[in-house]
Amino acid sequence: MATALLSLVGVFVALYLYLYKIGKIGTLVCGTGGCETVQLSRYSRFLGVEVALIGLIGYVGILAFTLWSLRPDVARARWPASMTALLAGAGVLFSLYLTGLELFVIHAICRWCVGSAVIITAIFITALLDRRAAGGAVA
Question: Is the pLDDT of residue 139 over 70?
């Protein structure tokens, strides 16, 4: 359940950043100006896709999968938590890559991006804990 809640928070963060990126929000509430610097940099796109949209799709996917895995006929299986951990692990690696760009290339920190990195890391941890708790369950 914690994974679903964290995913929902991640959806809102990524949606906020994406709405800014497509011009539906005038300015980002950041406090440092680093958010706009990062969001307007050439690194705000990955393989031609907005990074915020990638995050939004990722969080929605994890949320949907997590909610589906709460069904009683699926809840005791270990593989849903394993899949969530795999997806979140990929998100953690992508966040590390993006944070490296912020620190060493862009030279600006986006607080929203850091928040998203914390959220995906927490999802990864909760998924690992869920997987461990389901350790005795049938796959």
Answer: no
